[in-house]
Structures are given as structure tokens and as C-alpha cells.
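Hi everyone, sorry if this is the wrong subforum. Our group has a chain we'd like a structural model of before ordering constructs, and none of us has done structure prediction before. Sequence below.
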Amino acid sequence: MARFLLEFGRDAQLGPLRGFALLVGVFTLAGLLVGGTYLAIRLADDRPVTYALDEDHFKYGSTGGERGFGKQLGLGIPYWVWVALPELFPQYLPDQQPGQGYAAFGMIYEPDRDPRLELPVGMSMRRVQGIDRVYFNCAVCHTGSVRAAPGAPAEIVLGMPANTFDLGALVNFFAQAASDWRFRSDRMMPGIEAMAALQREAHLPEDRYQPKPFGVLDRFLFRHLGIALMREQLLTLTSRLAFIDMSSWGPGRVDTFNPAKALLGFPMERATERELMGNADLPSVWNQRWKQGMQLHWDGNNTSVDERNLSAAFGTGATPTTIDRRSVLRVADWLWDKAQPPAFPERHIDRDLAALGGSVYQQHCWSCHGNRTPPFRTEGDGSLVGTVTPIEVIGTDRARLDSYTRLLAVAQNSLYAGFPANEAQCRNRPDDTERCYPARFAHFRKTNGYANLPLDGLWLRAPYLHNGSVPNLRYLLEPADARPKIFYIGYDVYDYENVGFVSLGVEAQRRGWRYDTQVRGNGNAGHEYGTDLEAGLKDALIEYLKTF
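Answer:
Right subforum, don't worry. Here is the predicted structure as C-alpha cells:
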């Protein structure tokens, strides 16, 4: 009896402890379930900002790059980091002036958008893993601006080369900011909070998506992990591209394929000197329906429009693991036949002179560049448009041609290797995007020259030749030794008489980037067709070319 009473007393004393332990266990399990559910939902969060109009989708729609390569944490730039960087590191901006977002790099902001807080054309936003992130899209390289006179409003033109955008300077900005010791959470987080306060005061339009300020958990994560990860990602990416002198690019230009080599894992420290300079102008992207089957890119290394689009989108982060198929297809469908170049202003065209120029074009230019409007060629018409002219014949600077190698062609054809080989599947089965798009790459080839391109929207594609080494059409009709050796690019005021952007003079020098044709890759020799025409016929030809 005594033993029973002793054990009973002990159990009675332990009862409350057991109840408390059970209660703690229940709450712990509930916390784990709630936390696990929240974590699962957050990690699966993947919502792009969407747009009703195709034109707005082209300007701001996602290709998937915000997800990061392999969807790892941290590559898509968190929105609040993106808007804070120019304010926190103005000393690395080209004009060292904060308060203008990324306008100093020639990025285009629509007039009704606040550059401090809203995105420029060519940047998209997606909420990934609970964080609003931004990254490039196709429009960043294929949207430009034109002004009729100094001080006039800029016309934003979709599909034309990004004539004011200096991508090299932007990448250098990221590298310098990430290398600065002040890129750390105890300085970045107050800057981010200041931008969030500015957003509250700015009263931005409610009909446009605006990211919410960081919550308590996000502030904790970014203070202790996110900022460090972002810095590491920027340093990793820019260090892989450190072999490229991006200060040599300038507005509207890029080394097209050497960054791709680095991102594909090529050991660029072993690359030959000959292939390390591939600077070229950004191209226009209109009328793609009529360019299917032509040799595309400056050197004609691919004949598939879909592959051209996807290889270009690789630079926006649209890789096999990150691509947003439906979004990219929507852009491709718009570019296929809806994207058209605007007409040259009629008041600046002498129609009688242009009519005379038509016969000059037919005699001296048509065989390489084809018809003025689509279709640019017809079967059996004898035109060489969309084919490659050997470098020995065209005689233009060969650096861009030499930078593209056979090994790179092989590597590119391995992209999307797990996808169907039939490139037409997705266009024929548009609802089956998960299985039929993208198709496996199969068309990249090394060529021996530069492609004869159609001339649609020619007036907006200045400066001319593949490397932008001739500022306007009038100079293009002069022998190479009569073309300017030094001029300025990135100034968007138009020269309607000579057909090109203003590239000489005080204002062009102040606002533009110095282009030196003596620098490797910038040579302005070659393409001396029509240079022996008499002055009157040159005037007529230029007038006719305005109508393209």
C-alpha cells in the first residue's frame, strides 16, 4: 500500500509536466506544419507581372530571367536592390547624378514613369520565391529613341536597335558597386528602406504593379543573407566577363558572342587574341516572318528565326531551366509580323527625287539587299538578300566574324538538347508549349563573311555596317578614306538630310560616346558600293532609301 501511494503521488506530480510537454509538442508540430507550408508556398511562388497589350509585353514582359540560372536564389536582381543601387553608388554612374534611375546608361523611361522607382523599357519583373525581382528582356537591346531636334520629345521606337543604351557601362557599374566595401547590409538596408519611404510618398499609379516594401521576415533575410548573396552573384557574373573590355562597346553596341562563350563555360583565358574582339551594333528585329530561312545575325550564322530569338534571349536569362515559354512565344508572335518600322517623316522626303533613286537602287543595291518591302525576295528572282558575301569581297572589318568560332557553333547547337528537333512544332501546336517549345537548336554554322540583310527601317538602323563604323548613309556612299575617323554615337537627335543620327558637332560630342575607327574592331573600310556614283545620283539614292 505504501509503495502504491508513493508511485501514485509521483505520477500526480508528473501529470502537469506531461501535459505541458504535450502542449509544447502540439504547438511545435503546428508551427512546423505552418512554417513548412509557408516555406513550400513561398519557394513555389513564381508570378510574372503581365500586360494586356503586346507592345507593353514586349517592353516589360518577362522571358524568365528573373528566376536565375537554374532557379537558384539571388540572380534575378531584387527590385529594392535595383532601385537603391543608383542612389547608393552614384559615383559609379556615368554622370554621377542620382535621382534618375538608370537613365545615365541610356535606358529609356516612358514619360509617365518615375525613373527612381519604376522600370525602364527592357526590364521585366516577376515575383519569385516571395521576392519581386527584375531582369532584362528583349526590348532592352531592341528599343531606341529618336528626336527631331535638340530639346524635342523623344519618340520611343520598338524593334529598332537600342541606340542610346550602353550595356557595357551598366555591367561595369554593377561590377564597381559590388566591389565596393559599402555593398553590405548595414548600408544597403537603410538605402532600401529610404526607397520604400519614397515609394509611399510618390503616389505612383495604382493601375501598375508596385512591389510591396520588405516585411519583417524579408528584412531579416536580406540583412543576414540576401545582400551578401546578391553581391556574390554580381561579382561572380561580372568576373566571368572580366576578359572583355566593356568600355569599348559604347551605346547601341555589344560584343555579341564572347559573353555567351563565358556563360557556356569556355576557358576564355585560353582563347586566341583573334577571337576576343566581337563588338557589333545591336540589330533591328522587324518583319521576322519574311526573314525566316535567311542567313541571320551579322555573319549569317543561323537560318532559323526561332533559334535567333532564343539565342538572343539567352542574354536575358532565358535558358532551358528558366525560360518562360508562353511569354517568349508571345514576343516571338508579335515580332513575326506585327512589329513594323515606322515610316521616315514624309515632310523630309523629296518624292520626285526618290522616284529617280529607285532605278539607281535597282541597278546598284537590289542584287544584295532585295526588295524595299516584304517579301524581300521571291523564289528564283536572283537576289542575294539573306545570303553571305565572303569577307574578301565585302572588305569590312573582320573582327566580329573572327570572334564567332566553330566550337561556339557546336556548343550552341547543344542548347535545348532535350527538346524536340522539329523547330516548327510549336507554331503548329501553339497550345502545347510545355512539350513542343523550344525546339532543339540545329542551325548554327560558322560562315566566311557577312550577311546581305534586308533594309526595312533602314533610317533607324544608323550608324551603318555591322560594327556601326559609318555614321550616316551619305558617308556610306563615300570611299572609306573619306569617311570620318572620329564621330560620336548615342545622341538621338536625327539628321534627316544625311540619314543617320547627328554624330558630329558640339552637342553630339557632349552627349555622345567617342567612336574611333582606328580602334580594333571599329574599322570603317569595305562596302564601297555606289561610291563612284555622281553626286546627283547619290542624292537620289539616299532619298529613295528614306522610303524603306
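For your construct planning: The radius of gyration is 28 Å. The CA atoms of residues 395 and 526 lie 4 Å apart.
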